[in-house]
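# step 3/5: fold
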Amino acid sequence: MQIDFSQPCVMAVLNVTSDSFYAGSRTPDAGAVERRVRACLDEGAAIIDVGGYSSRPGADEVSPAEEWRRVAAGLEVVRRLAPGLPVSVDTFRASVVRSAVGRFGKVIVNDISAGELDAEMLPTVAQLGVPYVAMHMKGDPRTMQSLTDYRRDIVTEVCDYFRRRVETMLAAGIRRGNIVLDPGFGFAKTLEQNYELLSGLHRLCELGFPVLAGVSRKSMIYKVLDASPAESLAGTVALGWECLRQGATVLRVHDVREAVDTVRIFNKFRQ
């Protein structure tokens, strides 16, 4: 699978869960999944990202079998309605990746742990030859918000982490052209650190890999606005533009139409 990450595009979130942090994104049953997928397609998503395990702080544990059941339900709908559309699987478990590729063909792997939570992930991705989104995080979703102490500034920490991690990925056999980096906004970072990371995002982009930015309706927006995730669309659009301006090429979002419009206007602006 070859995906062109050189130009800005929109990755739509499909949460086949009942406990994701933004209630408006939850699709816990088959009807909700199908409605969501149809909406993403109608609004211009370039990729649909299917997840069955909420990574919000303090999220409940989900068994591998239950995660796969949820992911398979989402993938089945995407493949049925849009057979040629690139699809990604939001998981840190190699077993889920193997099951997804075995049943539905090649997918993009979107791993919040960059292979740190499952020793089989990097070898599995290498063997399957699929694109791999590696995200920066410390700990796991249950512990990450207690792990926000860094020796140096957050941008330097994240960039140095990825320099080391990329070497590990390459050593595992993952092709350089299959690697995408995600700075992990909101994962093991304070509010202030999120904005420091945003202001220095161009430094991560300068490492030479496509960068995915996931800021959609996150606490770094609604805490500043003294609002809720449901009231954070305008803030999401604003930060999405800034991510594009600094060099990110993938916006992972809940609100597809608004993000697609942002990308279209950004492309016109930079002509």
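# step 4/5: annotate
Residues 158 and 164 are 10 Å apart (CA to CA).
# step 5/5: archive (pending)
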